[in-house]
Amino acid sequence: MISTMQTVLLCAGSMLSSSLVCPPTAVTLDAVQNAPVPTLIVMPPRPSVNETKLEKVPDAGHPFVPPGLKDQRGPCPALNTLANHGYLPHTGVVHLEQIINATREGFNMDYDLAAFLGSFLMLARGNPEYNLLSIGGEDEQVPSLPVKVDGKCPRGGLAKHGRFEGDVSMTREDAELGDDRNFQDNLYDQFLTFIGKYGDDSKVTGPNSLVNLQVMKHFKYQRFVDEQMRNPKLSFHASRLASSYNEAAFILKFFANGTDETLTVSSLGSIFRNQSFAPNWWRRASPGDLNLIASTASDINPPNTPFFVKPGENKDGKYVEDDMSDYKCDTGYYDFVYHNLPHTYDEISRGSDILGRNVKLLLENIARPFNCGTYKVVPNGPIDPDGKCERSD
Ligand SMILES: *[C@@H]1O[C@H](CO)[C@@H](O)[C@H](O)[C@H]1NC(C)=O
Ligand SMILES: *[C@@H]1O[C@H](CO)[C@@H](O)[C@H](O)[C@H]1NC(C)=O
Ligand SMILES: *[C@@H]1O[C@H](CO)[C@@H](O)[C@H](O)[C@H]1NC(C)=O
Ligand SMILES: *[C@@H]1O[C@H](CO)[C@@H](O)[C@H](O)[C@H]1NC(C)=O
């Protein structure tokens, strides 16, 4: 919800650029709370020190409350868990700043990594003019975008296939084959089989009960091989491949118990199945940043081994690898922005209205952790990736 203070700041700032934004007469508190308004995104302060102490999560102020019928939950277990514990709004409709704060409070995610993720999601599947994103499906609290951004395509929410939600995830089906939004028992059972085979032993929880790199390496490879065989439309380009392996790295680095950095089957089940923090769980002591996640992802998808999978897609039943010779700097970053974000953002980001300023800020947040120097990749993707809604440009 947008506070009165934010509205005041927003209106003061917007007098310069647009008189349409602020109603001429005072709005009641009720109207402010019920009707979202275009909102300049203000980044939360960067932490002046990195948190290095262990912290038990959740704290007393964040008990588990199951989602109600209208609350949005989607394909990302970590965000679902944060919403169920009230670190994110329980509705599942969130601002960028809330994602950055909640991922720090719940998982000690590094500021720049969280800003990249939240900003990409906002541009891909949220409404950057209103700074609102549904972590599940389309939601009436998130207004439609101006037609100039995405044509007449509905934005969806995080769960909408394409741009972010994609193939070869661990516990969701490929969109082409089934339910790509909700937890799938049969896939999780496969995951458990791999833990039973490759997991580490624990004195407390027993043999083969800890999730480790070997589990992830074998399970992720099996998931790829399986979808490559079953999904004729498998799409596994550089950004999706990065997200898919980063997800696995997140689990190892963010879901593990901060005390000894081990991840038990029951903690995993708690987050995946119950979308709740495990009892007596501690978040990691040092912030997890993109370098940590990318290097772990590279251990899960290790170059020069039989497990190595390269970006590509299925064409006529065959996996065809992508030619990435003209990708600049980081291939994942390049693909995220150049191929996935709608090309209309390029011009919009040069505007001085609220939407333009927000889009520019979000694009900068995406670039920052990749250290791609001064090179700026411009969005060049389609407004209608599925070709399922009418073009307007
Ligand atoms: C916190 O850690 C990140 C990397 O995780 C680093 O880039 C940043 O400079 C650190 N910030 C402070 C204030 O030490
Ligand atoms: C995010 O956290 C910062 C630092 O604790 C705080 O100042 C800010 O109000 C928080 N913002 C939101 C939207 O919760
Ligand atoms: C999920 O929650 C139920 C009910 O609170 C509990 O009995 C069960 O042990 C939990 N499962 C996991 C894997 O945490
Ligand atoms: C986390 O580690 C502490 C200390 O070893 C232990 O008491 C606690 O049960 C562990 N929690 C989980 C969820 O594994």
From TrEMBL:
Residues 1-19 form the signal peptide. Keywords: Heme, Iron, Metal-binding, Oxidoreductase, Peroxidase, Signal. PANTHER family: HEME HALOPEROXIDASE FAMILY PROFILE DOMAIN-CONTAINING PROTEIN, STERIGMATOCYSTIN BIOSYNTHESIS PEROXIDASE STCC-RELATED. Its cofactor is heme b. It holds the Pfam family Peroxidase_2. It comes from Sistotremastrum niveocremeum HHB9708. InterPro entries: Chloroperoxidase, Chloroperoxidase-like_sf. It comes from the Eukaryota. GO terms for molecular function: metal ion binding; peroxidase activity. This is Cloroperoxidase. Belongs to the chloroperoxidase family. Residues 60-302 form the Heme haloperoxidase family profile domain.
